[in-house]
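A quick aside before the break. I want you to see a complete sequence-to-structure record at least once, exactly as it would be stored in a machine-readable document. Don't worry about memorizing anything.
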Amino acid sequence: MISANDRRMSKMIKSEPLKKEDLAFLEGIERLARFNRPIPNKNETKADFYFYEVENNEIITLNLDKARITNLPDSIGNLISLKTLSLAGNMITNVPESIKNLKSLRTLILSYNELRTFPEIITQLVSLEKLELEKARISSLPESFGNLTQLKQLNLYGNEVLKSLPESIGNLRSLRELNIGRNPINKLPSSFKQLTSLEKLKREGYGLPELPEEISLLKSLKELYLDGVMLQNLPKSIANLTSLVLLDLGRCNFSAFPESLRNCVNLKKLIFTSNQQSIELPEWISDLKSLETLILASTKITKFPSSLKKMISLKELNLESSIRESIPEVIIQLPNLEKLNLKSDGLESLPESIGNFKSIKELDLSNNRLENIHKAIGKLTTLEILNIEANRFKEFPETVGNLLNLKELNLRNNYLITLPESIGRMKSLKKLILHSNKLTSVPESIGTLASLQKLDLGGHKLTSIPTSIGNLSTLRELDLGGAYTLETIPESIGNLISLESLDLSENKLHKLPDSLKNLINLKVLSLSANPIGALPDGIGDLKSLNTLSLVKNNLTTLPESIGNLIHLTYLTLASNEFNTIPISIWRLKNLTDLILDQNPWDEASKKIIEKGIPEILKYCRKHAAMNIFLSHTVADFDYFKIAALSDYFEQQNVIDKAYYCEEDLTGNIDQFMNDRVPDSQLLLFFASQKSVFNSVDCAHELALAKQHNIQIIPVKGADVSWGDLEKINLSRQLGFEYDDKDFDGFKEKLFKYIKKFKETVDLFEAEGAKYDRQKFGFKNSLENFAESDIFGKAIKEHYAEFQTAFDELSYNRISLLEYYLKIAGILSKYKS
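That is the input. The structure line, written in tokens, reads:
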């Protein structure tokens, strides 16, 4: 695989970290403020841009994340209006003294650096409200840290050598969020209780013998995260946290459900996942009258009390991998339950009472052992999301059609043989996932799912697709891959004008529907593993495509129209029958990934492929497209509509660049002409009285074209005659009359002429005719053509006739363009 990302990473590894001089732009950044635009990232780091934000012509935000900075320049202190400075993901070991000048700074992000010792100068930034030091390798904080009295958010997560907090932490009376997770801090300073504004505390990871008493004194605390601290008990003082609404006790080691929670009457969300011991839910759990969410995933629950049904506030219950074989009846009796997760609970059947849920909106029954789905499931009329993936049932009840509010239905990876016709009644359905079942057909009623946005029918043994599928006008994703038996796709697929992703891979498609070209919003298309043999020209109409997979399609070439896919970033042509690089990809200038593995490439192609995407496209461009130079005077620029003509030419497949001075000139005009004219294959000379008789520049361009054997096509304006043009040796026979009254017609005729010239050149070169630029003609042309596969037989049989024709076309009496076109005309009569 050839990936631009791989090359960028390779450069990144070899490059040196940014040094002070590399960030010199900081010193003048205030002068750039009025432009208010991103700073280009010239060092190819993971970030696409370093950026800044401007307010009243002053820099207020500067982001230099992932820039491989080791040291900041002192000039950073000049940005006195800066409010936000983000330096995450660098290699900074310290900050300059001048940072103290940033008196307006509110947010400082130094996460993922190499600080080790906290820069004490930061404690002078007394206006700081947010400080992020996640995984900055800090080992300690100074007592002066307490000077940051305006701090509201402090993130110290993952500094695994930080064992304590300074006593002055208690001065941070404005602090609302504190993350000290993944730090070996077992004891909190006595001043911690003074953090009276603290609302959110994270102390995750690392064992904690017991909950520090100081935490229970934080009256404003609303969220407390203790995941992975391996607590064995919870003190009664937890009830003092009267503002607590969220408590995370995941991955702990309680032997019983903590009774101290009984008085946490304001608790709305309780996370009790992955407890190491089995537990019973106590009868008093119904005292948690405010509880809305209870997450018990991966904690083995041996008993559900009857009082559970009294929890009228409970809306979400997660019992993933927590129960065995059957659903406790008391769960079904929860009056206001909206979301229930019973994933991976070993369920073998559903009770008839499953239909008694009153308010259920989301139900997850995936990864169980269900062999039948009870028809009572059709009574769940409030249901919006139903996931029964990875079970064992073969049929789905007709009652599913009663789920009129259902938006998502996932039946992936079961043993379904048929789908009920009633599925077409589910008018609210947006996602239908049926991948990897045993379906051989799909009911026509599927075409009535007017809201459907995603349909996954991959991994089946389908032999046909109903034409009604074309009625799904809102469909964005369609997966028909992996059937191995599908031989045709209905033409109605072209009606899916909203479609953005289409997977037709791993089927038996020999031909694609003509209507495929109508899918103008398609972004992702996979045709891999189909015996297509050749792509239709209509593929080029899919101009929104960014991903195209063509693996194992028996392809030997690509259509010219593939070049229209200018937004394509990913293209795989692996495992086909290409011998040479398909030249038609030359216009795919946005490609970042091009996969060409496992093709029988010739040696020349292998060498180009090894050099990567830029060289491949350069090679293809050289062999596929022409550059054209538009020679004109400034006075004639608007009359001949030079800019419009250039734009039109550059939109055509056979033309890469259409140069003209006003667009491309960045310096000396002579240098521009000296560079661009030799780089062109054609020069269009826009003839007027001024350009023919009074323009030094146009005369120089004509001289360059003749010097480098560039074919010249004159375009005659109204104020000059063909006789005038003959005075400078330009042929009327090869020229065009400019028509300013029908510009569109003129440009189309001119392009057809240019295209014919290009096709003739390509044909001659492909057949081995060696053009000698110095002699303005072919060496041994007749002999070369006589050896060609296309013309060889005819020439050998009519050699004398051809010799006469070639002799008449003397190189001294005819231009190269006339020579090409006339020889092509002669040869076409005898083409084998």
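Two observations worth writing down. The longest strand covers residues 49-55. The two ends are 40 Å apart (CA to CA). We'll return to this after the break.
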